[in-house]
Amino acid sequence: MVTAAPTVAFVAANALGDLTAALVTAGVTAIAAFGWRLYRRQPVRQAVLGLLLVAACAAVATVTGEARGFFLIPALIPFAVIAVCVTTVLIGRPLTGLVLNRVAGGPADWRCVPRLRRIHTVSTLTCAAVNVVNGALQVVYYRDDQPLVLGIVHIATGPVFAVIVAITIAFVRRAKAGPAAPAPLSAVRPPRVR
């Protein structure tokens, strides 16, 4: 919720006032969120990235003079994520495997275990598909100058990806613990010829 606070503050202040009030409110909220993350001893990098993203969004909105400008950078992010997801699948190292395998307790050679590779491939392609929908919605509502809807779409993606992460971790743990989990491909050796 802390991550979404500046967006919620921006949309609410913009609906009640003007762009300047919305930018000031988002800035103050972003600084408060930064302080909260530091107080909770969350990684400093995450806190700084959140603050920088809000600053960049506010800068774009200031330059364009439009509330929807606040959502231009977030509207472009899905397209970058799609490219990363598809690329990692094509090179045989699906993104969720690279990011989540260790968290799920999967083996280091997960790419050699067909079942795990399949889970991470499906999960990564699901992330890409969600980003296709997200990107399309953001483009449509950006063009229609609907900052309220852009804010809702932006906030709604967090829980969707949290569900994908949770399901991926659950499937990896289940596959790892299952009795039918096949041996890694690297462990399969051809029979000796005598």
TrEMBL record:
Alphabetical list of Pfam families matching this protein: DUF3159
Membrane-spanning intervals of the chain: 20-39, 46-64, 70-92, 121-142, 148-172
Keywords: Membrane, Transmembrane, Transmembrane helix
Name by which UniProt lists this protein: DUF3159 domain-containing protein
Annotated organism of origin: Amycolatopsis camponoti
Alphabetical list of InterPro entries matching this protein: UCP010219
Domain of life: Bacteria
